[in-house]
Write a structure and sequence with these properties.
- The chain is α/β, with parallel strands linked by helices.
- The protein has seven helices and eight strands, in the order βββαβααβαβαβαβα.
- It has one domain: Alpha/Beta hydrolase fold, catalytic domain (Rossmann fold), CATH 3.40.50.1820.
- It is 37% helix and 19% strand.
- It has a six-stranded mixed sheet, sandwiched between helices.
- The two termini are 21 Å apart.
């Protein structure tokens, strides 16, 4: 089990982050980027899982810049609408916006673990993970899961600075398969994995959870991080 701490971005903005420590010396660190539902029980469990695998895990609250750093939503329609509103507000912030907070999380993860840093994110967090791979410093690998918007032409035109393993579901109504295929064509250096699954297939709190796809994606992600992070 981890606990919340306060991190500070380069512009002086302070925000909460959930930090989970491994049992022994960390073999590296993983930044875990939330969905639109906040650093809720699911995201904390994901961070705990990476800590159990030997990594220091840091999950920054990416709604903090709009005053919603303590959001912990569920997955009902009302929660989705609320979270989407927060995400829209964060996306509207002047650059670099929340990316400064992700950079602070990466820096904290590197300093605290003493090792390399990977980043993983889900849904909107998958998009932020992709942007981090392309624009931020201090990363060694990135694994976005069903990143909403990352297959759009403007995002697919970005160039990652680190190895990327991207996971998508072929039944995802939010991310049409033809856009995933176009992304894969535009990014031949990115490992793209497609599962017989829906959006949110990794989250066991959602109706779209797919245990088989989630396990396969996690196994691949852990092997990917073992190769590039430690």
């Amino acid at each position: 089990m981890g606990s919340f701490t306060t991190l500070t971005a380069a512009d002086g903005f302070a925000f909460p982050a959930y930090v989970a420590q491994p049992a022994g010396a960390p073999k590296g660190a993983i930044v875990v980027v939330q969905e639109i539902f906040g650093v809720n029980a699911h995201i904390r469990a994901v961070a705990d899982g990476y800590a159990a695998a030997g990594y220091l895990a840091v999950a920054p609250a990416t709604f903090a810049r709009i005053g919603k750093g303590d959001v912990q939503l569920g997955y009902a329609e009302a929660d989705m609408n609320e979270g989407f509103g927060y995400k829209t507000a964060v996306e509207a912030l002047p650059a670099p916006g929340v990316m400064a907070d992700l950079q602070a999380a990466i820096d904290h993860a590197a300093k605290t673990s003493g090792g390399k840093v990977g980043i993983v994110g889900y849904c909107w967090g998958g998009l932020l993970t992709w942007r981090a791979a392309c624009t931020l410093s201090g990363l060694s690998a990135a694994a976005p899961y069903y990143g909403g918007g990352m297959t759009a032409p403007a995002e697919a035109a970005r160039q990652p600075k680190v190895p990327v393993l991207a996971h998508f579901g072929d039944q995802d109504g939010w991310i049409p398969l033809d856009t995933v295929q176009a992304f894969e064509k535009a990014q031949p250096g990115v490992q793209v994995k497609v599962y017989a699954a829906n959006h949110g297939f990794n989250c066991d709190h959602r109706a779209s959870y797919n245990a088989e796809a989630a396990k396969l994606a996690l196994d691949r992600t852990l092997a990917f991080f073992a190769q590039h992070v430690g």
